[in-house]
Amino acid sequence: MTDIQLSTETMKYIRMATQMIHVDILDCVQEDDLLVFVVRKGHLGAAIGKKAKNLERLRNVFKKTIKFVEKDNDRNRFIQNLCKPYKVESVTLSGDDTSPVAQVKVNASEKSRLIGKGGRNIELIRKLARRHHNIRDVQVK
User: Fold this and answer.
1) Is the same domain home to 51 and 81?
2) Is residue 49 within 8 Å of residue 37, measured between CB atoms?
3) Which of 56, 90, 100, 119 is the most buried (most CB within 10 A)?
4) CB-based contact 69:132 (threshold 8 Å)
5) Is 65 found in the same domain as 81?
6) How far apart are the C-alpha atoms of 114 and 109, rounded to whole Å?
């Protein structure tokens, strides 16, 4: 994992969210009206909360769309977690081991939604993959 640098504002979001939902948050990425929190493996359910109560509380406090991603030390599973809720058929890594390129295969009907309007979703996936596993690029097939 590369060193993750957090802005003061991002640290504030992590601190506030951790205090509210009582889950250890490893990272946070802010993109316009979206906050993506990376939580420890096995803590995704607790982060979302029963009947998505924690998710709703954070939405109301931050006035932003909130997404949680479960951290995984396995690169392929982490990429799959980043792509949720879309069903990933396969993830293949190519290139050198120090900074590989990930190819994500999804159903053709979900490809455009995974990429997002103006490539917004795929850019966020690339950013988090680079931050946590030094993956140079993520391509959708």
Assistant:
1) no
2) no
3) 100
4) no
5) no
6) 10
Choose among 28, 102, 8, 33: nearest CA to 68.
28
Q: What number of residues does the chain have? A: 141
pLDDT at residue 97 in the model: 82
**Would residue 3 count as lying in a domain?**
no
Task: Give all strands (DSSP E) within 59-126, no chain letters.
Answer: 65-70, 88-94, 101-106
Query: Do 63 and 106 have their domain in common?
Result: no
Q: What is the pLDDT of residues 67-109, one digit of tens each?
A: 999 999 999 999 999 999 999 999 999 988 888 999 999 999 9
- Look at the chain and report how many structural domains it folds into: 2
Q: Report pLDDT for 32.
A: 86
Alpha helices in 84-119 (DSSP H): 108-115
Contacts of 130 (CB under 8 A, 6+ apart): 2, 136
Place of tokens 């140079």: 136
* Residues 30 and 82 occupy one common structural domain: no
Question: What CATH number does the domain containing 51 carry?
Answer: 3.30.300.20
DSSP SS3 for 136: coil
Q: What CA–CA distances, in Å, run from 51 to 8, 46, 56, 62, 135?
A: 31, 11, 9, 19, 34
